[in-house]
Amino acid sequence: MIFRLLLLVFALVLFSSNACRKDPMIPVKTKAELDAKLQEQLEKHKLTSVAYAVVKNGQLLYSNALGYADESNGRAATDTTRYLVASVSKTITAVALMQLVEQQRIALDDDINGFLPFSVRNPDFPDVPITYRMLLTHTSSISDDFQNTLDLYCYGSDCATTLDQFFRDVFLPGGAYNDADNFTREQPGTKEDYSNLASALVGYLVERITQTPFDVYCRDHIFIPLGMHKTEWRLANSPIAELAVPYSNDLTQSSPHYTFPDYPNGGLRTTVRDLSVFLRAIIQNGTFNNTAILSQASMAEMKTLQNGSPEQCLSFYYETVNANKYLGHSGGEMGVTTEMYFDPQTNIGVIVFNNDDDANLADIISYLFSFGENQ
User: Fold this and answer.
1) Do 315 and 335 contact (CB within 8 A), yes or no?
2) Are 53 and 340 in contact (CB under 8 A)?
3) Nearest to 122 by CA among 189, 207, 200, 208
4) What's the mean pLDDT in 70-92?
5) What is the pLDDT of residues 303-318, one digit of tens each?
6) Burial (0-12, 13-18, 19+ Cβ within 10 Å), 7
7) Whole-prediction pTM
8) pLDDT, tens digit, 9 for 90 and up, residues 108-132
9) d(Cα 274, Cα 226) in Å, to the nearest integer?
10) What pLDDT band is residue 10 in, cutting at 50, 70 and 90?
11) Is the Cβ–Cβ distance between 49 and 68 less than 8 Å?
């Protein structure tokens, strides 16, 4: 939990510093030029691997990988290597919830307590409902402060704790993870405070509303319809031989692969090729290859700035990379750095996966966008 907070702070500092300088990129026009530039970045930043994809106007322009998925055994990374994508997972979780909004089973501004078996209210503001919109915009006042003091990682297998058990422990008095610091002292809906806990609660709510395990719901309503056959929430369903090994000094367990009970906020494993399908559906207003995972209106709502924020949409947010502003999401975990962004003006999108801590991927992102612009 602490590790996730530190990675978020690092990412914000990194991109803030990059935003202060002009884009140093020269035009990248060919796949060979792109691979050469990314190989330079791999060596410059001592990255174990990068897997990457560029999409434009509904097409996958290029996907490839450099370096090692498993350096110790000499297994090369490919564009079909499965990586833990950390907080990029939140975009999948948000789409799952928005499907239920679209079906009018809930509304964004409904009180989440309508589908919970216990009450979730900030104790300082017991009469102020927490809504689905607040969860998706990090304004719910649900805080990671106490959760970041815990070590809930499970190594080599999926955590046995269910989402229901986890959130009962978080929000019920006497629960193992119940603490006053699970909430900020701000009124819900008034202040942004990035919350992994709130994002995982979105997944639990999808489970409660649909009466279907969250991972199964996503499989049946997002992954299978889009043909994402190498995308899984469960480690047990992800062949070890296809996984990128995460490399981190914080990983001292015998198994480098790990899970956590609040997995809807960051536990997805997928490939750049698979995620490129999801990204193309997002760019194309919810539809890919005549399969709609969301309507155009719902997708437009997800891409709309919320609550007067200059960056935050529904789960997605705007990020400045080398002086260019893109919409998407980043992710960071032990031995994982991931990025997924697109330019709403050009319909170019890029994905980068890496299996190191705190990797500097800003210039790689710029090279990928440059390649897309020149196709």
Assistant:
1) no
2) no
3) 189
4) 97
5) 999 999 999 999 999 9
6) buried
7) 0.93
8) 999 999 999 999 999 999 999 999 9
9) 9
10) very low
11) yes
Task: Name, in order, each residue with C-beta under 8 angstroms of 363's C-beta and a sequence gap of 6 or more.
Answer: 24, 25, 41, 322
DSSP letters for 63-80 = EEEEEEEETTTTEEP-TT
Chain position carrying tokens 């891409």: 303
Q: How far is the C-alpha of 81 from the C-alpha of 273, rounded, in Å?
A: 9
Question: Do residues 349 and 56 lie in contact, with contact meaning Cβ atoms separated by under 8 Å?
Answer: yes
Helix, strand, coil abundance in the chain, percent, nearest 5 = 40, 20, 45
Q: What average pLDDT score do residues 66-81 get?
A: 97
Q: Enumerate residues 6+ apart whose C-beta is below 8 A from 356.
A: 47, 48, 247, 248, 335, 337
Q: How far is residue 348's CA from residue 45's CA, in Å, rounded to a whole number? A: 25
Spatial distance between the Cα atoms of 14 and 8, rounded to a whole number of angstroms: 10
In the chain, the percentage of residues whose pLDDT exceeds 90 is 92
Residue 9, pLDDT > 50, answer: no
Largest CA distance in the chain: 60
Following CA atoms 146, 148, 152, 153 in sequence, which dihedral angle do they give, to the nearest 10 degrees? 170
d(CA 290, CA 283): 14
**Res 24: pLDDT:** 52
Q: Which amino acid is at 37?
A: K
* DSSP strand pairing (336-343 vs 348-354): antiparallel
Who contacts 300 (Cβ-Cβ below 8 Å, separation ≥6)?
285
Q: What is the mean pLDDT of residues 63-86?
A: 98
Give the span between the Cα atoms of 25 and 370, in whole angstroms. Answer: 8
**What's the rounded Cα separation, in Å, for the pair 136 and 138?**
6
Instruction: Record the tokens describing residue 371, joined without a space.
Output: 């390649």
